[in-house]
Design brief:
Radius of gyration: 20 Å
Number of strands: 0
Oligomer: single chain
């Protein structure tokens, strides 16, 4: 029914999104392809449709109360509230696992993002959370992958050493999305999330994750590694300089040169930078 829409190019402005596309997005039949489509969503309508499609009651008081107050929150916070409402409804459902699977495999990237956010609510220990988040780290949609690392960010802040140890094998995976997750979720300053004080002070603790990626074939991964080091240069510029120099000596590849160039962009703008 929506096959002809799957290869579309995203509209340059919200006002240019075709009515057919917007309808399919709000029905939960289609994934967004750009930020404009994401921002154009009728979130209460999408949430109700997704709830019904995964076997939850869209008229449940818990969900309706949440949808009624969404306007009081910034756009990204709204999604967190919807995810939590669906999580609470699913927790009381007799077929909770089936509901969770239906959300995690939903055609809508936004719905799968809500499933990724459930992991942050789960109360699982860190090893189990990482095992649960892996499918979302490998998701084909960029938005879901961002929610995946954010879902375990609190664990990184709380015990970065444990997370680094658990992610050592991830940076050796064949899937670049999985490798990128290991780098992105441990960035010292992070994006739209809490910093990691231990890695700001001692970024070298994450070298077991960064070293195997210093010549990565994927641009997606290389950008993450470069941004990781650029983050670290705000508090440990000399360590970043030394690490980049070591990588240059160890590898003459264009991939390593690209990472180093981007990693040093802040340091080189301010050579006297220090903590």
């Amino acid at each position: 029914m929506v096959q002809h829409l799957l290869q579309r190019r995203g509209a340059a402005r919200i006002a240019l999104i075709p009515a057919e596309v917007l309808e399919a997005l709000n029905e939960g039949l289609l994934a967004t392809v750009n930020l404009n489509e994401f921002l154009a969503l009728d979130l209460p309508r999408l949430a109700g449709n997704v709830a019904r499609q995964i076997g939850l009651d869209p008229q449940a008081e818990r969900l309706q109360d949440t949808l009624a107050m969404l306007g009081a929150f910034k756009p990204m916070r709204r999604h967190g509230h919807v995810a939590l409402a669906l999580y609470d409804l699913a927790a009381a459902h007799p077929e909770r696992d089936r509901v969770a699977h239906a959300l995690a495999t939903h055609p809508s990237d936004v719905a799968r993002s809500w499933a990724a956010q459930w992991i942050a609510c789960s109360g699982l220990e860190v090893r189990a959370k990482l095992a649960a988040v892996r499918r979302f780290a490998a998701d084909p949609h960029f938005g879901v992958r961002e929610m995946a690392w954010m879902a375990v960010r609190d664990e990184v802040v709380r015990d970065p050493q444990a997370v680094v140890e658990l992610l050592r094998d991830w940076v050796l995976e064949g899937d670049p999305n999985v490798r990128r997750f290991a780098s992105e979720c441990t960035r010292p300053h992070g994006v739209w999330c809490a910093p990691v004080p231990a890695l700001k002070a001692e970024p070298w603790r994450a070298l077991p994750l960064l070293e195997p990626l210093k010549s990565d074939a994927s641009l997606y991964v290389r950008n993450s590694v470069a941004n990781w080091l650029n983050d670290a240069s705000r508090t440990q510029p000399e360590w970043v300089r030394e690490t980049c120099a070591q990588w240059r000596r160890a590898s003459s590849s264009l991939e390593t040169a690209y990472i180093v160039r981007r990693a040093l962009r802040t340091v080189e703008r301010n050579p006297a930078a220090g903590p």
